[in-house]
């Protein structure tokens, strides 16, 4: 949950939807890019929604459409480095903000936050164990 909130905050600050950020993250592991259908499949989007997402990411300069070298009929979607730099900046701003908040906590408050975050890590496992009974 806290990871989703963090990712949503980064996406919002960058003018993106969390699904866009997921797509950018997924594309970051594919230097040759991906086809629209591969990206849509990863994101669980219809072909129309995939086209809309790609159009949005292109207009915001996060990705570019390139020719597929193996099949000229296909187009690949690749990350643009300037878009990646924008995200790195957004992550950095949020990281620094978190550092400021943590620095202003007392020792007891920080310990409480740490216990809470550790307890959150066990929530999915506990939920899974309850369902298997």
Quick tags:
mainly alpha; 133 residues; Arc Repressor Mutant, subunit A; 3 strands; elongated; 68% helix
Task: Walk me through what this model shows.
The structure is a single chain. This protein has about 130 residues and is mainly alpha-helical. The protein has a single domain (about 1-105), classed as Winged helix-like DNA-binding domain superfamily/Winged helix DNA-binding domain (Arc Repressor Mutant, subunit A), CATH 1.10.10. Helix content is about 70%, strand content about 10%. The chain has helices at about 1-15, 20-25, 35-45, 45-60, 80-105, 105-120, 125-130, and strands at about 35, 65, 75-80. A 3-stranded antiparallel β-sheet has the order 1-3-2. β2 and β3 (about 75-80) form a beta hairpin. α1 packs across α5 (about 80-105). The radius of gyration is 19 Å and the shape is elongated. It starts with a helix and ends with a helix. The model has no long low-confidence stretch (mean pLDDT about 85).
